[in-house]
Amino acid sequence: xxxxxxxxxxxxxxxxxxxxxxxxxxxxxxxxxxxxxxxxxxxxxxxxxxxxxxxxxxxxxxxxxxxxxxxxxxxxxxxxxxxxxxxxxxxxxxxxxxxxxxxxxxxxxxxxxxxxxxxxxxxxxxxxxxxxxxxxxxxxxxxxxxxxxxxxxxxxxxxxxxxxxxxxxxxxxxxxxxxxxxxxxxxxxxxxxxxxxxxxxxxxxxxxxxxxxxxxxxxxxxxxxxxxxxxxxxxxxxxxxxxxxxxxxxxxxxxxxxxxxxxxxxxxxxxxxxxxxxxxxxxxxxxxxxxxxxxxxxxxxxxxxxxxxxxxxxxxxxxxxxxxxxxx
Length: 328
Known about the structure:
- This protein is mostly beta strands.
- The protein has a domain of 98 residues.
- It is built from 1 helix and 22 strands.
- It is globular, with a radius of gyration of 21 Å.
- The protein starts with a helix and ends with a strand.
- The N terminus is likely disordered.
C-alpha cells in the first residue's frame, strides 16, 4: 500500500489522482525548460517504473526520469547531485524519497524536496581502523530503515560496516562489525558435465557469477556457452545474458541462474529465447515475477519463470532515454 500511495502522490502533480483512479498515472505533464531539459516533478517519492538518468554537465546535476513501460509515458522526473552514483537501486530508500552516496570519502544523504534531491545528512568516516585514509563506500538502504556502508582504505579490504539513521543526521555512525572481501568460489552446473561456474561472494552474500560450459553432446568449438550473471533477483538468483551469437546461447538470450553454494551447484534455465540482437539490458520488476528486457530492437517484458514469450512494450517508441538504471 505504501508504493500505491507514493504513485498517487506523484500522479497528483502530473495529471491528478481523483476518485476512481487506478493509482497509476497515464500521462505526463512534466514541463520542459527552454534548454530542453525536463524540469523536476517528484515531491514525496518517485513512482514505480523504468528509471533512467541523464547528466546535465552545465549545472553538475543528474536528471532522473521514470517511465511507464506499458504505455511509454513519462511518469515523473527529479534532479540529483552530480556527484551522486544513482546506478544502484539499493542507494535509494523504498520509495526513492532518499538517496545515499559518497563524496570525498564522506557518506551523504539527499532527500527529495520539490523535485530535487537536497542534501540532508553528512557523516565523516571514522579514522581509527587503519593508518591510511578511511572512506565510506557502497551505501545501501536496508529493510530496517537504516543506511549501511563499508568503511576502509580501499574497496578490496574488508574494513568495517557502519550504519546511520538517515532521519537523524546529528547521530554518529554505529559500528556494525567487521566487513568482508569478495571471494571467488568454483561451482558446477547441475546436469552439465563440462562446466565451470565462478561465483563471487562477499561475506555470506552472492554478488555475481559467470557461467561457462559446453552443451551436452557438443564440442568446445561449436557447443561452448558463456553467461554473465550480475543482476540479482534475490540473494541466490541472478539474471544472465550472453555476448555470444544465438547458436551458442544454450540457455537463451536471457537466463536465470539459481545458486546453491552449500551443494556446490548452479541451475540455469531460459527466460527469453536466443537472439542475434546485441546483449540486452535486463531489469527485474519490483514484484520479482517479471523482467524487462531492452535490446537493440526495443523493450519487452516476460515472466521470470520463462513460461511466456517476451511481449514488446510501448516504451520501445521512446528514443534517447538516457542511461538505463533499474525498474523501481
